[in-house]
Please model this.
Amino acid sequence: MTRARLTQIALPVFVGLCVYFLWDAAVLFFEIPEFVLPRPSRIIAALVENFASLMGSLWVTLRITLLAFALAVIGGVALAILFSQSRIIEFALFPYAVILQVTPVVAIAPLVLIWVGFDNVNAALLILAWIVAFFPILSNTTLGLRSVDHNLMDLFTLYGATRWQRLWSLQLPSALPYILGGMKISGGLALIGAVVAEFVAGSGAGTGLAWRIIEAGNRLQVPTMFAALLLLSALGVVIFFSLTLLGHLALRRWHESAVKQG
Amino acid sequence: MTLPVPDSEASSPLVTLSGVTKRYGADLPAVSDIDLTISQGSFVSLVGPSGCGKSTLLRLLAGLLEPTEGQINWPHSGGSRPADLGFVFQNATLLPWASVFENVYLPLKLQGIEREVARVQIDTALERVGLLEDREKLPRELSGGMAMRVSIARALATEPPVLLMDEPFAALDEFTREKLDDDLLTLWREMEWTVVFVTHSVYESVYLSERVLVMGTDGDDADQPGRIVADLNIDAPYPRGLAFRQSPKYFDHCRHVSAALRGELS
Model:
């Protein structure tokens, strides 16, 4: 491992340790009550105590996030392909995709809950997380499908390529870096969407991490709130790095962004 | 050893343009009123300053553009352009994610030919440009000259009757360029192709071709439509090499083409 790489890992770890001890010292020194800010050791203890039930909640949130993300990728790419094939469809539908995107999901959530019904809270959560996650995929893929080298487009025209050949052998591979970039944004948004939706759904049948935060907050179990929060952050980080790795593996052989220089 | 220079009057025409005008939108035409016959098996260069319509004319020939007025007639393929037509762009224009082999296979793939059936044809094309050993490489692993060779091999793969080249070697260094010029001439003589070669280099056009078409605009105004201002025969035998590059005759031809470019020839 190179010296620079070592520093890159050692520095954040060092900062983390500093924060841990400063936090601990501050809580002791200022005698801050636990229901305002618990000591870090208490948060870890709460995590260990409630580990099984927190993991169950993590699984609920993770499942909704991943499902929403997968549907966002499928839906976003499919819609972008449709747009690239027909300008008319694009002109007709794109404004509505934008409207769906710019309307705050918190504001749509109650409506969706009413429509889907409180018996199907998970379906409502899925829909809401999907709405948040799908737009980056749609807009990035649309951009990617349009950014094909025009000489290559001419080449395909010269050899009489069909629409399908052009899409499959030229436009989709060209758009792949854009799609992967969109996925990286959308993975994080799917998690945010799932959590926000669960907050709004409130006491319905929520059992995910967001609901655990609300519940622990109502009971002033602040260490448990922090423990759930910790798990949510960890989940977000894992999603981000998985998608970064996926992008790297898919592009490392040919794309400028992933090719090692030198 | 003098090879007869094909006389454009006598040999059979590959394509005839009559009164061809191309207008983009409502602007002045990019090229106007072009009358031209290119005979089969000839090596023709189009030379001219930027914006004179060379590329437009080449794209009209390729069928990538439709003429606004006039006719383009290919008598050997029933009037319309042949289905097989090699085109080489200024950049190598390769699929960056596909190997050299896959890039050369592309035109055949688009015509629905199986990879296994095409293998011999692809290897032959790669061998002709001297890249058989590099077939598994990706475009980013190639030098500019090698990438251009792949591009030529791809144009060769379908064994087209005519090769259209749009300033293909303009981005390469002088040394690589001269090497590719020589290789192109060798290929042309082997394959009995027709080559239409767009360049802005007077020297390259004289060195390569039997016939140089000088394009320009009326006056100095680049917004004016492009037309063919001179049609010059380069009567020097093939194979051409260093001796030709250094002969007084070569410089005479170059001076002649340059004069036509400056509009000093009527």
